């Protein structure tokens, strides 16, 4: 094999796999309000996966632009609204949530994403559950 072909093959395998690791994936959000009788389980899509990052061990030697830590985030999304069942009249029974259409590796935008990884995630219902398929 020629060196050009070998390098092209390695480049394609390396960056082709990396790009495919950040993609929309199915996810269930559990939503409940204290005033409402039910918990709503919502099927949606979120951006999930891995992105290439740079090692920041040499941060004193490198420019800040070379220290980017990319995350899997929304490229295209829209918001959907669900009605939480069993709410009294004085409570707003609606919940809006993002639906990922496509994803990208990039900087985390705090305008619409939670950029902090929590150690403990509680994604469950404490009340009777209703399923919402949107």
UniProtKB/TrEMBL annotation:
The keyword Ribosomal protein does not apply. One of its GO terms (biological process) is G protein-coupled receptor signaling pathway. It comes from the Eukaryota. GO terms for cellular component: cytoplasm; extracellular space. CDD domains: GHB_like. Keywords: Disulfide bond, Glycoprotein, Hormone, Secreted, Signal. One of its GO terms (molecular function) is hormone activity. InterPro entries: Cystine-knot_cytokine, Glyco_hormone_CN, Gonadotropin_bsu, Gonadotropin_bsu_CS. Residues 1-16 form the signal peptide. Residues 21-125 form the Glycoprotein hormone subunit beta domain. It is found in: Secreted. Belongs to the glycoprotein hormones subunit beta family. This is Thyrotropin subunit beta. It comes from Nycticryphes semicollaris. The lineage of its organism: Eukaryota, Metazoa, Chordata, Craniata, Vertebrata.
């Amino acid at each position: 094999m020629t060196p050009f072909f070998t390098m092209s093959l390695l480049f394609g395998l390396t960056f082709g796999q990396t790009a495919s690791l950040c993609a929309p994936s199915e996810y269930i959000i559990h939503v409940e309000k204290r005033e409402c009788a039910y918990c709503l389980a919502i099927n949606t899509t979120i951006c999930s996966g891995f992105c290439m990052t740079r090692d920041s061990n040499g941060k004193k030697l490198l420019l800040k632009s070379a220290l980017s830590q990319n995350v899997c985030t929304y490229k295209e999304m829209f918001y959907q609204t669900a009605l939480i069942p069993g709410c009294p009249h004085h409570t707003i029974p609606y919940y809006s949530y993002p639906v990922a259409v496509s994803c990208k590796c990039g900087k985390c935008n705090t305008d619409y994403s939670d950029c902090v990884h929590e150690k403990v995630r509680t994604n469950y219902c404490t009340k009777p559950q209703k399923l919402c398929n949107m």
